[in-house]
Amino acid sequence: MDTKPFVSPSQPAERAQEDRYVVLIPAYKPDARMLKLVRELRAEGLCVQVVDDGSGEIYRDIFDQAQALGCRVARHAVNLGKGRALKTGINAAMNAFSPLDGIVTADADGQHTCRDILRIMARMRENPRALITGARAFDGNIPLKSRLGNSITRRVYHFATGIRCQDTQTGLRGIPAAYLPQMLQLPGERYEYEMTMFLRLREMRLPLEEVTIETIYIDGNKGSHFHPLKDSARIYSVILRFLASSLISFGVDYGLYWLLLGWLDLPPWLCYAFARVVSSGVNYLLNRMTVFKTGGRDAVFRYYLLAATQLSVGAGLVELLHVTLHWSAGWIKIPVDVVLFCLSYLVQRDFVFKERSGQKEPV
């Protein structure tokens, strides 16, 4: 295989031996702020890959200037979205630069500084097997929509994955070279791609580390092309798909419960138990194959230990509330199962399908 030395135009030879990282900047209709960042990065001797995500002919001069500064520029004929631009840039960098230790993605709108990018690289040298991200401090200086959006998303993300993340919306990410092929295969073409990356960390067995960075919002972040409603819907749809197995199992469980209760006139606790036995099997298979993607014989034992406990508690609560409080047998299952669903998901996440030592990582 033909490989090229890790040197970009005008890159100092001593820097080429010291650092093997590429800065990737996806850009859509950028301005002088991107060029300022590029100049600073090139002054540090860093390799830079820029992706023009269909900005149009009027912005060609900016990308030509970036190229003149020593960047590589890949171009989309039309706007395909940030996720696609990131994948285009990762692919281009993997082909153009070799050997490669990792890629640092940065935004083109001035939110990320050269100093913080260098700090991400420094942490990558210390821990080359982790995803290193830049975390902003979401204090009173942050626009309300960004502060509120991140607060909600990070809590939902922690519930879904068990991973604590201060800044789920950051575009400053240091990706180790060993994981770049997997990043190319992740679904998502627009902003949801970055959330998909976070949701797949457990599956990829890629630890997350955060570095506190400078918080920069210029003119209330007007330079951002993020559409609060449309793009937020895409991001949350990714999280909902991630949790879809539990929602499907809930539907199977509740549907069977209603059918048995209405057709066979059985006691509520017995209907609950039968429906839970069926839905627990569906839930196990879906969670093992599509959500946590781990688990062997030990996971089967742990899961059915949980399912038996959940069945006993749920059936007991349904019968107790029905007999003592005279709640409707048809509707009493909803509040009971909402509570048990949340508890069950957390136990599955942190106990049933928890990664065990000795699992393989990319090589």
UniProtKB/TrEMBL annotation:
Residues 241-353 form the GtrA/DPMS transmembrane domain. Its main location: membrane. The chain crosses the membrane at residues 238-260, 266-287, 299-318, 330-347. It is a multi-pass membrane protein. It is found in: Membrane. GO terms for cellular component: membrane. Residues 23-150 form the Glycosyltransferase 2-like domain. Keywords: Membrane, Transmembrane, Transmembrane helix. The keyword Transmembrane helix applies. InterPro entries: Glyco_trans_2-like, GtrA_DPMS_TM, Nucleotide-diphossugar_trans. It comes from the Bacteria. GO terms for biological process: polysaccharide biosynthetic process; protein N-linked glycosylation. Pfam families: Glycos_transf_2 (PF00535), GtrA_DPMS_TM (PF04138). PANTHER family: DOLICHOL-PHOSPHATE MANNOSYLTRANSFERASE, GLYCOSYL TRANSFERASE. This is Bifunctional glycosyltransferase family 2/GtrA family protein. It comes from Candidatus Avichristensenella intestinipullorum.
